[in-house]
Structures are given as C-alpha cells and as structure tokens.
Amino acid sequence: MQRWLLALCLCAIAVRGQTSAYPANQGRPQSQPPSERGSVSGRVVDAATGEPIAGARVTIGRTAKTDSTKLATSDSAGGFSAGGLPPGIYIVSAAHSEYPGALNLAQEGTRIEVRAGKETTAIAVSLKPAGTITGVVLNDGGEPLSQCGVALLPVPLGGAVPPEAGRGSTDDKGRFRLESVAPDRYSLVVTCEQDLPAEHILDIVGPNGFEPQETWQRTFYQNGTTRSDAVEISVASGAEVSLEFQLRSVPVHTIRGTVTPAPGLSWSTAPEIRLIPEGPDTEDSLEWTDYLNVETGTFRFEMIPRGAYSLTAWTTDQFGRLLVSEAGKVVVGPAAPPLVQLQLRMSTTVLGKVEWPDAGAATAAPASAGQRIRPGGVPPMGSARTASVGILTLTPARPGGPFTTLTGRVSPQEGSFQIPGVAPGRWLVRYEQLQRPAWVESMQYGEAPVGNQEIEVTPDSTAILKIRTNSKLPNLQFEFVDIAAAAKSNCALHAVPFGDGSPSRLIHSDAGRGDGLMPGRYHLFGVEQPEGGVSLNERALRLLGRQVKPVEVVGGRDQTLNVRCFAAEEVQKIIHHYIAGDPR
User: Which residue ranges have biased composition labelled Polar residues (predicted)?
Assistant: First the structure.
C-alpha cells in the first residue's frame, strides 16, 4: 500500500511539473528572443545651436502600443543608445537641469518606431535652451552696489504663492546673472543691506540725536516698491533679458511701545515681538530685530519705512501656557507713530462640535485611508486605528505671521474637539473626515455664520465652533466639447479650485462621470493626453483654468455639464501666448 501511495504522489508531482500556473499563451506574457527585439541610437542637441548636450537623461518611453521603457544618459558627444526593446511605437525624450521647459514642464519628445531585429538610428532629440536674466544694481548716484541678493519670483497664477525660481547676488561691479531660467513670466526682487553713504549723514541725524530718519529702500522690485506693482518680466526660450535697478532712499521712523502681562499673569521668559507688514503698499519681506528692555517692558523698532504694520507679542507663563497679545495696528507716515501698548493675555482654546448628517456616521466602518472633505485640504492624518473621526485644522488666514497651523482631533462619541493655544486674529478653518466621505455644509462660530471658512478669534472668547457635515456627494456627469470626436476618449478631467490655494485634482472619470469631487467652486476642463504626453504641473493647470469660467459643484444634486477639453497643441499655444505677454 505504501508503494502505491508513493507512486501516486510521484505521478502527481510529474503531472504538476508539466503544467504551468499560466496556461500556454495565456496570462503570463511570453518573452521575446533577442532576435525579435530592436535597438535605438541618437543624439541630444541644443535646438538653437545644434551643439551636443552631455549628461541629458534620455527616456525611451512606452506608448499605448508597447509596454517597455528604457533609460539612458547622453555622452560627451550627446550620443545615446539602448537595446532589448520590443517592437512598437515609442516616445524618445530628454531632460537636463540646464534646459528646463516652459513653466518648468518637461520638453516634448520624438516619436519613433522600433522594428524587430532592427536598429533605429539617427534619432535627433532637441532641447530648447533656457533663458537668462542679467542686470546691475546701482545707488542713487549711479555707483554699483555689491552683495545685494536677487530673487526670481514666478508671477502668481492663483492658488498658493509659487516658490522662488532662482537666486543670485551682485558682484563688486553691481552685476548679477541668473542662468537656466525656465521660460515663464517673473518679477525680480532685490534686497540690499548697505548703509547710506557719508554725504547723507545730515539726512539721517534727527532733532533728538542720532536717530535714523532715512535709509535705503531695503527691498525693491523692477520699477516698483512691492510685488503688487512690480513689472512683469517675460523670459522666452533662449532669450537674455537685461535689467537695471537703482536703489532709492526712503524716509523712516522708529516705532516705540510697551509690553506688559495682564493682571494676575506673568511671563517666564522674555516675550518675542514681531513687526508684520500689512497692505499692498508696505514692503512685504521685512524681518526686523526688536529691541526689548525686560525690566521696563519697553521696546522699539528702528528704521521702519512708511506703511501699515501690525505688532504681536507672545511668550509663555510658568506653566508653559501661551501668552499672546492682540495685534497692535501701526501706520508709519510722515510723522512718528504714537506709542504702542501691548498686553499679554492667556491664549484662547477653541471649543467646538461636528454634527453628522445621520447618527451612524461617527461609528461607520473606517475606510482604509482618510477622506478629504474639501479639495486640497490638509494631508490625511491618522488611520483606521486612530481614536477620532476627523481632524480640525486652524491655519492663520494671513500667511507670513508668527503663528503656525494648529490641529485638533474630533471625538467619535460626541463629535467634540478642542484646540488650545489659539492667538487672537483671523484663522482659516478646515475639517477632514477620516471615516467616510463628507463635506462641510455650514459653520457657525458663536451666534454668527462663518463665511469663507474664516473665524475671528478674540481674547477670552467663549464662542463655540459648530460644523455641520453632509455625506450626500455630488452626482456629476459631463461631456467634453470643443475637441474632435476622436480625441474625446483620450481627455482627462481636471478640477482647479477657484480662489483657493488648494492643489488641482485629476478626476479619474468613467463614462463621463466626475466621481470623487467634493462640493465647491472649480475651473473644470479636460486635457488631451497624447502618446507619451507630458504631464502638466500645477502652474500649467492654473493657467488653463483661467481660460474657462468657474462652476459650482453642489452636493446631493444631479448636474450635467459641458466641459471644454484642450487639445495638446492648444495647450502649447496657450503657454506660448502667456509667456509672450498675453494677460490671460
């Protein structure tokens, strides 16, 4: 009997060894012999000069008709090669840090066909050159100024303020040069720390002794004093833009004040005091060092140009609790401003409650990941194991201040939350529900409804923040228009939040449905996806969003919309016209 069992087992093993887990010609892709694969070779060159580009990252990328990608690096002669490619259609593209594309997008590639057992040669991949900005910084006497910082700022297109695109400094002749500038529109800001020359000494000595009354404008823009009135600079591919900045002297005053704790409070460490520029006519990049006499509680800020400012002081008490003052408003004009008095009080704890549309919302089975309740909200915090159903976030409504984002977790039992250490001022409220998709239907702070999701926190406030959510999501259907019928199936739907710093979203649509989009105001549009096409970044999407009117997407309602789809060639034209100076 044992011999028969052994024979049966060996037979079963033999049969199993002859049977693949994937039936013949099904499931697992069949590898191709080397003779049935192809290879490619070519050069990466400068589109303007034809000179070779060494060190470019070359991608031989798949299209819809093939499933293989190869990477290569161009040599000193710009040459590259790659083998072992299955037959099919490919897009060969290149990238180099010194050749950024328009709006910092990747540059377009070259379409090729790879044949079995053949080498596709003489592939030419050209990269358009970047722009260059040069200039000189002079004082009011025409003399060069060295060691001035120069920052390149992309012109905002809505949403979050874009980061710096480049930085440099002036040499001993006041000259600067910024290279490898992506084609785009910019403003340029120059910051200098130089003292006034000796011939200005009588101007800076005031009637009360050596008290500064004039200084160089510390930060300035091309033909403007603030970002709002700065001249926009268009930088095209291969262009060199030359600029001249002339430093000017501006009148200044000293701001004086006192800071004291409220009755019954005391600070454990010396308070910090921050002077914050406000308004479009005030220099927007000032960082002033404060002078504080701890014994008397007096402080001063020297050499402050004309404009509107706010003063805020903060510290901690012996228990580590935040003490903070209300913002003291100061206007610096022709005359010295009056004495500013700041009083430190205990910071506020914001209390509140989230109301769900049905009783089971708080105890629903948790999702595998957090659900954003508004587009572009705070990143998901917590997980299915987190003992909370949502995250409430308070962000200073005015960026650049001394305070940062505060968060609080929402209790799954009562929906209550508390956020301690909130300073007086305006705060942007955002709520993220972790366990099921939902959106904010209404907010109320105290007795007043909340508009634009902003609340005004005052000292000693006892107001309750109430948030009501709704789980009835939009039922959005759409049809792409203004594009050839053959291209409709290759359009991707994008949603750019209107008047919001939240990032844009790619909506994974199916059969004309905009699933997953929360209620709100959006620029909705489609973008044709070409073979091996270039992915659009946030800046390009913001630019396209300006070409269409915003629409309101409403929760719990059926909506059918006609959505414009931009062809790939049209996208390139819009970008080109924008860089050339089209205000759209």
Answer: 22-34
